[in-house]
Amino acid sequence: MKRVSLNLAGAMALSLAAAAPASALASGGGAAPSTDKSASAAKAAPATAADVKAGAPLRDVDGAPAGTIVSGTDQQVVVDTGQTKVGVPLTLFQKDDKGLMLSVTAKQFNDAVAKAHARAQAQQQAAPQQQQQQPH
Predict the structure, then answer these.
(1) How far is CA 45 from CA 40, 63, 127, 132, in A?
(2) What is the pLDDT of residues 52-108, one digit of tens each?
(3) CA–CA distances in Å: residue 41 to residues 3, 45, 63, 90
(4) What is the Cα gyration radius of the chain?
(5) DSSP output for 26-45
(6) Which residues have CB under 8 Å from 15's CB, separation 6+?
(7) Considering the entire predicted model, what is its pTM?
């Protein structure tokens, strides 16, 4: 398994912004049909550091598996996606009677991880080039 340190804050903000209209429809009353998934999301509360348990499964807002919790602090949770381990801001987590869940879909989460991974690789490739260009 590849271990990469990624910053998801910016990428997740973009995903959340894209998800906002759908969320607004789901909670807007009458505009979208009520489903068990949206009812579960409505019952969810913001997660706290005390809710983060290493080894616990992580679900997305629709209930689909999204990874496993590795560790957490009061600001960040490390998630093992099966492909990489990534730090995710605690503010993107919710809890319900079934445990922790992301406030986005698994697709949005995976897209954000891929974007952050690509950005990290680009920065790593640019760093040696910048060092070579600096005069001694």
Answers:
(1) 10, 15, 41, 50
(2) 999 999 999 999 999 999 999 999 999 999 988 999 999 999 999 999 999 999 999
(3) 31, 8, 9, 17
(4) 17
(5) HHSSSSS---HHHHHHHH-E
(6) 104, 108, 109, 111, 112
(7) 0.65
User: Whole-angstrom distance between the N-terminal and C-terminal Cα of the chain?
Assistant: 38
User: In which residue are the tokens 């998630």 written?
Assistant: 79
Q: For residue range 37-52, what is the model confidence (pLDDT) as tens digits?
A: 555 556 889 999 999 9
Confirm if 98 and 59 have CB atoms less than 8 A apart: yes
Structure tokens that stand for 46 in this block: 């913001």
Angle between helices 36-43 and 9-27 (to 10 degrees): 120
| Residue 37 near residue 62, CB atoms below 8 Å | yes
Sheet containing 99-102, strands listed edge to edge, beginning at the edge strand earlier in sequence? 45-46, 93-96, 99-102, 57-59, 65-72, 76-80, 85-89
Burial environment of residue 68 by CB neighbours within 10 A (0 to 12, 13 to 18, 19 or more):
middle
